[in-house]
Write a structure and sequence with these properties.
The protein has 228 residues and is an alpha+beta fold. Helix content is 32%, strand content 14%.
Amino acid sequence: MALTKGDNGKEVRELQENLKVLGMYPHKVDGDFGPKTRQAVMEFQQRYFVDGIVDKHTSDAILEAVKAWGAAEQVILVDVPKGLKEIKANFGHIAWDEAGGGNITITNDWAKDNIITVDLPVVGRQAIHKKLKLVFEAVLNEIVAKGLDGEILQFGTWCPRHKMHDPNKGLSTHSWGIACDVNWATNMPGRVGDMNRDIIAVFEKHGFEWGGRWNYRDDMHFQYAREY
């Protein structure tokens, strides 16, 4: 059975759920094959042909990709925290004051005790949490080994601030030095960017969460934390 724009029901819902797993459908799973679902299908089909219709060939390919993604090798060197409580337990408590513009000033000794500046492959000098030195090195060394280093045009790590620089939100994982932004010029929040899929796979293999899988996607963002 082929699916196309205007269809609805269980099969469309399953399609949306699978596309969401692959980071291609950051929207509500509602079982309606509308313009957003069609756009996600077309993004997936770029390796084959583009018509926005889900026939058996495309459906089988999506299921195969979901299976491969779920079985991907994991190399976890440091426990990945879930939620704010585990972030603080794993990487320390930050005391802070507002600094304006969504930025913060750290007021305790946390930064002195935890942030280090290191020379990382590909991206050079970066300030990161000391516990993630080997993790960042492993990610970037694998990117070099796969010949993907030319894909990284911009790279930033530690930045004490709120999420999205919004003082009404919690602290960003950048505040702990456990996140990085990559190629922000073409991967701004709230839109589909052009992040290389193989780079995403390397980061996720080593425990990072990619912001492109969030409901409000942030394609530039990779963080060593989940559910936060």
